[in-house]
From TrEMBL:
SUPFAM superfamilies: L domain-like. Pfam families: LRR_1. This is Leucine rich repeat-like protein. InterPro entries: Leu-rich_rpt (IPR001611), LRR_dom_sf (IPR032675). Gene3D superfamilies: Ribonuclease Inhibitor. It comes from Picea sitchensis (Sitka spruce).
Length: 184
């Protein structure tokens, strides 16, 4: 689903439709200009391995049952600046290897149970300026190999690396988008 409007008024993937597509493995929502939240019925697609929600500027909420997507390996929530929280059920995604929450500036914190993502290998959290404090549980993510962050969380990640994860690669990316010029 790309460059679409009208999704806010549609019912996507009701249970009957989910049964028709039991082997769906990938869904992409990109530049869906009026999408404010993902339909909860998407969580019925338990064979889904990759879910991307990118450049959906109005999306504020993810389904509470997101953790039912037991086969999910990649979750990309990039450039969703209105997304303010991740549901705690995200921590039940036991197959998740890649999580991209980059450019989610309204995201205030990560769920405390984040350490349950035992297979997570890569976390992209570049330009998540709303995240001020990282949960201490992140140090328990033994499979985590690479973090992409910005200067806002760099020191916290370096402290985690030094204390518990010496093989972690921390890539610091310079800020790409800045609206400070509006103040001039």
């Amino acid at each position: 689903v790309c460059l679409c409007e009208g999704l806010a008024n549609m019912t996507l993937f009701d249970k009957a439709q989910a049964l028709k597509f039991p082997k769906f493995v990938e869904i992409n929502f990109d530049h869906c200009s009026d999408l404010e939240e993902l339909p909860g019925s998407i969580c019925s697609l338990t064979s889904l391995q990759r879910l991307s929600v990118t450049n959906c500027h109005l999306i504020q909420k993810l389904p509470d049952d997101l953790g039912r997507l037991s086969s999910l390996r990649l979750l990309r929530l990039s450039a969703c600046p209105s997304l303010s929280m991740l549901p705690s059920s995200i921590c039940r995604l036991q197959q998740l290897k890649f999580l991209d929450i980059s450019l989610c500036m309204s995201l205030k914190d990560l769920p405390m149970e984040f350490d349950q993502l035992s297979k997570l290998k890569m976390l992209d959290m570049n330009e998540c300026s709303g995240l001020k404090m990282l949960p201490k549980a992140l140090a328990k993510l033994r499979s985590l190999k690479r973090v992409i962050c910005d200067e806002h969380t760099e020191q916290q990640w370096l402290a985690i690396k030094a204390s518990a994860m010496p093989n972690l690669t921390v890539d610091v990316v310079e800020e790409r988008f800045n609206l400070d010029w509006l103040d001039d």
